[in-house]
Amino acid sequence: MKLVTAIIRDNNYYETKAALLAEHFFSLSTYRVLGRGREQQMYAINDSDVRKSIKKYPFVSKRIIEIYIEEKEVERLIRTILSVNQTGNKGDGKIFVTPVEEVIRIRTKETGIEALA
């Protein structure tokens, strides 16, 4: 079992969620967060003098999506996330894949992949 964590641009969240649902990735958790990568993000506000309107922000709004899945589904999930979020620009986000040793459904005490079904 794996945990796939994607940190994406906030404005791509709904399109990403729709793509995940279309690929039958229904169980997910999401969080709104503030963060940044190596470089501060710069944004230009619609202004006639762009040099005066460029602002640097210490943090920008992002979304974290977490999905616990079987190992055989990881590549398909990654392709789905990339299809919406990969623009080639800084700030596109990150995807982390980490192993999950065990999962237990509290209600039934089911373990392993059965606990995710």
What does this structure look like?
By secondary structure, the chain is α+β, with helices and mostly antiparallel strands. The protein has one domain (2-115): 2-Layer Sandwich (Alpha-Beta Plaits), CATH 3.30.70.120. Helices cover 22% and strands 34% of the residues. The protein has 3 helices and 6 strands; from the N terminus they run E-H-E-E-H-E-E-H-E. The strands form 2 sheets. A 4-stranded antiparallel sheet has the order 2-5-1-6, covered by helices on one side. It is elongated, with a radius of gyration of 18 Å. The model has no long low-confidence stretch (mean pLDDT 89).
SSE blueprint:
Elements: E1 2-9, H1 13-22, E2 29-35, E3 41-44, H2 50-53, E4 54-57, E5 60-69, H3 74-85, E6 93-99
Antiparallel strand pairs: 1-5, 1-6, 2-5, 3-4
CATH-level-2 architecture: 2-Layer Sandwich
> Total strand count, please?
6
The level of helicity is 10-25%
Instruction: Compute the number of helices.
Output: 3
Q: Strand fraction band?
A: 25-35%
Give the CA-CA distance, first to last residue. 12 Å
Protein name: Nitrogen fixation nifHD region glnB 2
GO molecular function, one term: ATP binding
InterPro entries: N-reg_PII (IPR002187), N-reg_PII-like_a/b (IPR011322), N-reg_PII/ATP_PRibTrfase_C (IPR015867), N-reg_PII_CS (IPR017918)
Family: Belongs to the P(II) protein family.
